[in-house]
Design a protein that fits this description.
Elements (H helix, E strand, L loop, with lengths): L3 H11 L9 E5 L4 H12 L3 E8 L5 H16 L4 E5 L2 H7 L4 H35 L9 E4 L4 H14 L12 E2 L5 E2 L7 H10 L16 H16 L3 H30 L1 E3 L2 E5 H4 L6 H8 L9 H8 L6 E3 L3 E6 L2 E6 L6 E4 L7 E3 L3 E8 L2 H4 L13 E5 L7 E5 L5 E2 L8 E2 H7 L4 H5 L2 E5 L2 E5 L3 E2 L12 E8 L2
Parallel strand pairs: 1-2, 1-4, 2-3, 4-6
Antiparallel strand pairs: 5-6, 7-8, 8-11, 9-10, 10-11, 12-16, 13-14, 14-22, 15-22, 16-19, 17-18, 19-20, 20-21
Helix pairs in contact: 2-7, 4-5, 6-8, 6-9, 9-11
Length: 480
């Protein structure tokens, strides 16, 4: 049964992070019984609300009637209201989409803009109050969108997803809380349409009905008006049963997600700053779409790409598959995961940083002076650690500040031992580095010349000699 008390109890359990008295709510109100009941309950709870109504101009005089009704309702309860009027049919034609999709895009885009506008005002109000009362930082009310989706809507959604073909997530129905795109909640999701209608009757609430809801032109209406009533003749509790199953699947999905995430966490390796997964490890679940999807969805891939991803495992070195945000690259016995939007590095190093640890995108750079025994003891030898993470340079040949940056295709240097100029692109190519490692290669520069291809080779002109007075030592340690 839907009452103020049962609503409040559900809210406290489902939305512990959303305070009724400390938030500003945008209520999506169409004028139908569901949204009118939601608005009435929020008003009764004395929550701060703004009613948001969209006139899609799809039903002529009926659309005007709905807008006027919502305006009168807002005035009756002294609630602020914002109305957005749009040419939905023209939008759908322009962007080649169905009316339902167009309406959805329009309303949620506007809801987002309205929420941002209210957030800005809340911030301004909080700042004004803090300036007038104290020096404390303002605490503006978070803005949350509320929609009136209910249990029956959820049942219809589950059936639609089932008929289209879906995984576990699709059968979990409409989420009660979302914060990914918009900060929104659906506080009527635990209550049936019948309970909502009963609440409206008990509180003498009137509403308007969208005549298109009675037509079966849309899939949801067909399921609501014809399919579910027919199924209910055989299974009277069909809606309750689907809701219970959906709730159990939410629990199952959480278990599956945790298991899959733990599996991949154990398989991740970091090589030279590049996140990778050994193919041998991936082969443990090759062909298992649940495990594969649990990984690739985090990198912008779509379910339709899963079979192509499997092919990469057996492809030639360098083969890759891309999403909008990442690439999976086959390299040796690994699948490398590389962001498409990785930023280039540009870090200035001053003499004052000598003796310090300098953090870069891919590791830590240490700089220190060391003695040259060839000068102090007139010795002809100086043992240099040949590990490529170290670079010993003639300090007097350096021009400060130095620049630690990502290499460019126009770069060149004089590799130690070669004695002549070489394009860095060709030099790195000869090292047979993977594309991802190569793209992240850093160089250390003094003025306009490279003195060290970091972790690889110093410039021949910077090498130390018996006459070198001061030696500076660089150490680069990958963070991973």
């Amino acid at each position: 049964m839907l009452t103020i008390e049962t609503f409040k109890n559900y809210w406290d359990v489902q939305f512990p992070d959303v305070r009724l008295r400390r938030s500003h709510f945008v209520l999506a109100v169409s004028g139908g019984v569901d949204s009118i009941v939601l608005a009435h309950i929020m008003h009764s709870l004395k929550a701060k609300c703004t009613i948001a109504h969209v006139n899609f101009q799809l039903r002529g005089a009926e659309s005007v009637r709905d807008e006027n009704f919502v305006r009168e309702f807002a005035a009756q309860y002294n609630m602020p209201i914002q109305v957005h009027t749009c040419e939905t049919a023209k939008y759908a034609e322009t962007y080649k989409m169905g009316i339902q999709q167009a309406a959805r895009e329009i309303r949620y885009a506007w809801f987002g803009a309205l929420m941002q506008e209210i957030t800005n005002k809340e911030n301004e109000t909080g700042l004004s109050e803090s300036n007038s009362l104290s020096n404390k930082q303002p605490s503006p009310k978070p803005v949350v969108l509320l929609t009136a989706h209910h249990a029956d809507d959820n049942v219809e959604t589950v059936l639609m997803q089932l008929f289209r073909g879906t995984g576990i997530h699709g059968l979990t129905g409409i989420p009660a809380r979302r914060t990914d795109v918009l900060n929104m909640a659906r506080p009527l999701l635990a209550f049936s349409k019948a309970e909502i209608i009963a609440y409206a009757a008990a509180n003498d609430l009137s509403n308007v009905e969208d005549s298109s809801n009675e037509k079966n032109d849309y899939t949801r209406n067909l399921i609501r008006n014809k399919l579910l009533p027919q199924i209910a003749e055989v299974y009277p509790n069909v809606s309750e049963n689907i809701t219970d199953t959906s709730n159990r699947l939410k629990e199952a999905e959480q278990i599956v997600n945790e298991t899959v995430a733990l599996f991949w966490k154990k398989g991740f390796k970091i090589k030279k700053g590049i996140q990778s997964i050994p193919i041998a490890y991936w082969n443990k679940v090759k062909g298992n779409a649940t495990y594969t999807w649990g990984l690739v969805k985090n990198y912008g891939f779509k379910p339709q790409q899963i079979e192509e991803i499997y092919k990469i495992l057996d492809a030639n070195k360098g083969a890759f598959i891309a999403s909008a945000t990442h690439r999976f690259i086959k390299w040796e016995d690994q699948i490398q995961i590389v962001s498409n939007s990785s930023t280039k590095e540009y870090l200035t190093i001053n003499e004052t940083m000598i003796g310090q640890s300098i953090q870069t995108q891919h590791g830590t750079l240490n700089v220190e002076f060391v003695d040259n025994p060839m000068v102090a003891n007139e010795s002809n030898t100086f043992e240099i650690d040949k590990d490529p993470k170290f670079a010993y340079l003639d300090a007097d040949k350096l021009e400060w500040p130095l620049l630690f940056r990502t290499w460019e295709s126009s770069d060149y240097f004089y590799p130690l031992g070669l004695g002549k100029k070489k394009k860095l692109n060709a030099f790195l190519g000869n090292l047979k580095l993977s594309p991802s490692v190569k793209s992240n290669q850093a160089v250390l520069c003094a003025s306009d010349r490279i003195v060290w291809v970091v972790g690889v080779r110093i410039d021949d002109r910077m090498k130390i000699k018996a006459s070198t007075q001061r030696i500076i030592k660089f150490t680069f340690q990958n963070t991973f």
